[in-house]
Design brief:
- With about 150 residues, this protein is an all-alpha fold.
- About 75% of the residues lie in helices and about 0% in strands.
- Helix 1 packs antiparallel against helix 2, helix 1 runs parallel beside helix 3 and helix 2 packs antiparallel against helix 3.
- The longest helix has 25 residues.
- The chain starts with 17 loop residues before the first helix and ends with a helix.
Length: about 150
């Protein structure tokens, strides 16, 4: 069956099977749509999927961060055009984030693979719990907005 062929047998420089490529492509498209909608690169969804397919952690992490960059760039274009980007904040956060990511990229080859997997799991869990709490936690400014509407 064609879906079980490796991409290398088709002349492409990859050991992935065709079904794995189709799965990752479909997942990335869906994550891209969702990410553009909610304003996240959502690598925390993509990275576990890449790891699940047996891709080594350093390769999965590097691939995921580049895909996240491309996804975030694509999603930000519309937000930028619509004036939904504070460029001052983006630069103040983006420049140090880029420097930190550069340092992290170099440091990742020094870290044991088990440590990287544990950190990935901790960050994904933490982000999930934080988002659930934020969804159900009453916000102070919501109350102020309601009181301004009624007065």
């Amino acid at each position: 069956m064609i879906l079980t062929q490796s991409l290398s047998s088709m002349g492409l420089p990859s050991d992935l099977l065709l079904w794995q490529l189709v799965l990752l492509t479909s997942l990335s498209f869906g994550v891209g749509v969702l990410g553009g909608l909610v304003g996240l690169a959502l690598g925390t969804i993509r990275l576990p999927a890449i790891l699940f397919l047996g891709i080594p952690v350093p390769l999965a992490a590097g691939t995921n961060i580049l895909v996240s960059t491309l996804s975030a760039l694509g999603g930000s274009i519309r937000h930028l055009r619509e004036g939904r980007v504070n460029l001052h904040i983006a630069l103040c956060m983006g420049i140090p984030a880029m420097a930190g990511a550069l340092i992290g990229g170099f440091a990742s080859e020094l870290a044991p693979e088990r440590l990287l997997i544990c950190l990935i799991g901790l960050f994904v869990t933490w982000q999930g719990i934080e988002m659930i709490i934020r969804a159900y936690k009453p916000r102070l400014y919501d109350n102020r907005e309601q009181s301004n509407i009624t007065h």
